[in-house]
Each structure stands twice: as structure tokens, then as C-alpha cells.
Amino acid sequence: MSILQPACGDAERLIVQVFHSDDEYLRANAIEAMQVVPERLLPMVQLGLRDPSPVVRFTALVLIGKCTLAELGNEAVEFLSDRSPSVRAAALFAVRSCGRDTDLRELPTLLVDKSSTVRRNTAMIIGLMGEKSAIHMLRDLSRVSMHTAHPVKQMIHRLQIAEAILLLGDDKELDTVRAGVYSRSVEVRVLAITILGNVKDFAMIEAFPPMLQDETIEVRLAAATTLAKLGRDDGLDVILEGANFDAEDVKNSVLTFLGKVAESPSVAAFRRLVGDPSEQHRVATMIRAQAAFGLGQVYSNHAAERLVQMLAEDELPVTLAAAASILKAVATGSRAAQR
């Protein structure tokens, strides 16, 4: 019997509790976390469609499309004229996935929206829709220079477009993502490593073990999680380290990084972090949440036991991530769910 199976009921109850949070991002994440439990997902999506937050409505519509909730197809049509561009893009995906004809001509316009969030969401939607005809449009967009954007934001934009192209089955953008793994920006490296794990880039597998010794926990954790997605448990100790990270660990980690790295696009942000205890606490919470996702990928009773323990933590992002990992591991027969 799965070591995680007995915890599924607690995980479901916790997700429902988080869904009623005042935080729109937690509500959206709660809907996503429930996608492997269809009987629970449907009522949450229905409520999510009526949420005042576009973040939640967007997520609800994406789940209608990803899970093909055909019974909500008619409701999804209502959001084709939503005030939020991202919600409209998600509505196109939902309606299309439910077998209804719809006009996709707004998508190219949304891909060049002034909002980076809208551009990112639209690229993701196109990838999920499987519209291979959009590959050339996405590739052209990736070459457009964002003159007013910081170089790091430009690279993140290119990586997000590259991921959408990869989702459409075109591997020509792999080199773009692989290059990001060696960026001087921590944010870019983490995103690139994560994308390569998502697309199962086994050709890069030997590049990740050395990253388990990186100066920053974010990079170490991303590398460990990607190795787990590729079937290797090399990074379990790193993921367990991340699962126990606290504000003091964040501060000490930053000080170590600053002592060894003279120049980096991330140096200024790290220096500010040293003097901000509340931000240290927030970062530690996000690191533990990411570790919870990583634990769900690893074949280890220790990993599974730690996931169950994390359900009792005080920070909702951590408990939600642990609950999502438990449900997904059990539903998919993940290695972490097995004894």
C-alpha cells in the first residue's frame, strides 16, 4: 500500500480549506492542486469561474481545457469577452478543448500585449492548445527585442516562448533553454533547469549533478527536482535540505553567495535580502514549497514521510504544495508514492 495513500484525505481537505483563502494566488493554486481528483475539481472550477480575481478565473478556465471538463463548455463561452486578456486567452483554450468552434484570431494580438504576464499566459495557452501552426509566430516573437526590459526579463521572456514551442513538439528551441542553464542570473538558471525537467531533456542529464553544489539553494533545488523528474535520486539530500529551510538559512545562504560571487545580475537583490527579515521568511517559505514539489518526484520512504509531515506546517504555500504533491504522486503512481 502506498505510504502516501492514507494522507490523501487530509490533503484534499487542506486544499479545500486553502481554496477559501483571501489570497488569490493560493485560491488559484488550490484549484490546480485538485486536478487529479475529478469529483472534487468540478465544483471548485465552477466556483473559480465566478471568482472576482482574474488570476483565479484564468486558472479555472485552464483546468477546463486541460481536463476537458466538457460540461462546463457553455460556461466557458461567457468568458470570451472577459475584461482580462489572460482570462480571454484561457477561455479560448477551454472552449476549444470542449469541442466548440471559436475564433482564435485574438491570440496573436495577446502575444504582443504590453503586459509581460499576458504574453506569458498566452504563450502557455498556445502550447497547451497544441496549435502547431503557431510555432512560426512564437519563434518570430522570441526574436523581437524588448528594448525597455531588463536583460534578465528579456531572457525569461525568450525561455517562456521556447517552452511553449517545445510543448508544440518542436525541439529546435532546446538550445535556447540549455543556454539559460549557464546564465549568470539565478532566476534565469532556475527557470531553464525547470523547463528542461518538464520536457524531459535526458540529453542534459549529466549537466545537473554538478549543480547540486551550486552557491544558491534555488539552483540546487531546481537541479535536484529536475534530476528526480528524469528518474535519478542524486538530489534527494538537497530537496530535504530545502524542505527544512528557514529565514536564518536564507540569510546565511545569501551571505555565502555574496562572499564568493563578485559580479552577478542577482547581487543587488541578494544584498537587499540580507537586511530584510520578512523577505527572508517569505523566500524560505517559497523554497520549502518548491521542495515539497520535488519530494513528490523521488522514490524514497523518507521523501514520502517528509511530505506527510509538511501537511502540518504553518505556512499555507508549503502545506498546499505538499498536499498537491501527495495527490499527484498517488494518482499517477509516482515513484514517491510506492513502498
Kindly estimate the percentage of residues that lie in beta strands according to DSSP: under 5%
Please state the average pLDDT score.
90
**From the alpha-carbon coordinates, what is the Rg to the nearest angstrom?**
20 Å
* Unreliably modeled segments: 335-339
Silhouette:
globular
Task: Provide the succession of SSEs.
Answer: HHHHHHHHHHHHHHHHHHH
Structural class: mainly alpha
The end-to-end distance, rounded to whole angstroms, is 7 Å
Number of strands: 0
Number of helices: 19
* Biggest β-sheet strands, sense, barrel: none
Fraction of helical residues: 55-70%
Question: How do you describe this structure in short?
Answer:
This protein is mainly α. It is 65% helix and 0% strand.
Would you write up a description of this structure?
With 339 residues, this protein is mostly helical. Helices cover 65% and strands 0% of the residues. Helix 2 packs parallel to helix 19 and helix 10 (151-167) packs antiparallel against helix 11. The radius of gyration is 20 Å and the shape is globular.
